[in-house]
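Worked problem 6 (solution included).
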Amino acid sequence: MSKNKPFSKIITLFSKNEYKIFKFTLKKQLFWVLIVVLFIVAGGATYYYYTLTADKKAAEEESTLQTAVAYNGEMVVMASGTGSVIAASEIDMAFEYDGTLTELSVYVGDKVKKGDSLAKLQTEYTEEEIQAEIASAELAVTQAQNSLESLYVTAEANKTSALNDISTYAEEVRDAQYDVDNYLMPSSLQGMDPIEALDYTKEQLDEAREAFEPYKFDEQNNSTRRALLELYNQAQSNYNSAVSRLQYQYILEVAEANLEKARTEYEAYKDGPTETELAEADQQIASAEADLASAKKMESVVELVAPWDGTVTAISADVGEYLGTTSFLTLADLDNPVLEVSLDESDMELVALGYTAEIVFDALPDVVYTGTVTTIDPSVTTQSNVNTITALVKLDKTQLAEDTTLPIGLSAAVDIIAGQAENAVLITLDALRDLGDGEYAVFVLENDEPVLRTVTVGLMDATMVQITSGLQAGEIVTTGTMQTTSSGN
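Solution. The predicted structure is:
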């Protein structure tokens, strides 16, 4: 036993050390377990706190119904744009002839009346040349008229000649037809037409000539020669008959053709000249008369007069200058002011003929003028990368002082009134509900409860809408809902 004590002691010592190590390890593990538990508890507490707070906050929040009151007021729907004054109408004027400008009676800005003299021109024609031109034109008119009259004389002569030809050719047709009908053809040619008979007899004649050829110099008393000669003579006789028959047929057909031509000639002239001849003669007379009228208009000195009341807006020539027939003076109507207005294409549905326009000129900001839309350009134009539509607005000139002329190019702001309503029932657009198919409704508060009610709408813009039936001023309508937060803790 004593021998084993040291060994036993060693084991005991080892066991004590091991216990210490185990005990230290156990303490360390317990520490980390405790840390994890603390984290879990803290996280749970945080989650509980925030959940409780959120529920409390949500309980404090509530939905609030937004409302608006329908009221009576004025509503105007308009399209706004810019415009500038242009001439109601204008004309570029020129002389009809080349020449030298000898007199200029107006200046730019002058107002003139219809018939006023504007300028005079010395043409290239002398009085002698003009009279000679007139005489030549008068002679041409006389000759054209004589030509027309001669057509009737010629037509009568042609008709008479045609009647005579009809008589002559009718007789020829009669005689030729008689000769054809009474010409006796050999029995062998009966039933053949003239060309067929000619071809047949020519073939027979050639055969008879060929058969007789070897015997033609034999003795006349040679029986073969006599027989062949007899056949040859008969073939020649038949051929001559066919030729005669063809000649009679030719005479008949020529006579018939001449008779038909004579009849056509008679039909053409029995009522006078032909339509083509008369048309050509009338054209010659009209041309000659036009030349005469032009010659009579020729003057040594010509005058340019105003075709209507207006204002001279441009002159591009000076006295002493040689002018062609191009325009050099512009006359415009500024007494009836017109504005050319440009508007955004999105306002196209707000612009129509007859709509009233309100106009404020930049140079006259204290006065609102009115006008009427008279023209709408069907084309869209682009200005500064913006698509625009163009309309013409005629200004109510009764608002202008007497003898006041608005200068061309004067700019203005223009509002075209598409619709206007006074003392109308109005609500904000967000209160309106679109039911589709052109039907609308609103929610009206009745006993603090929203009730859907159909309504009829009138004018409408981006913010307001007119109610024409279904709603009275003073009634409350809903415009939506919003979230509000209670002021309590």
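Discussion: The domain at 101-123+299-332 is CATH 2.40.50.100 (OB fold (Dihydrolipoamide Acetyltransferase, E2P)).
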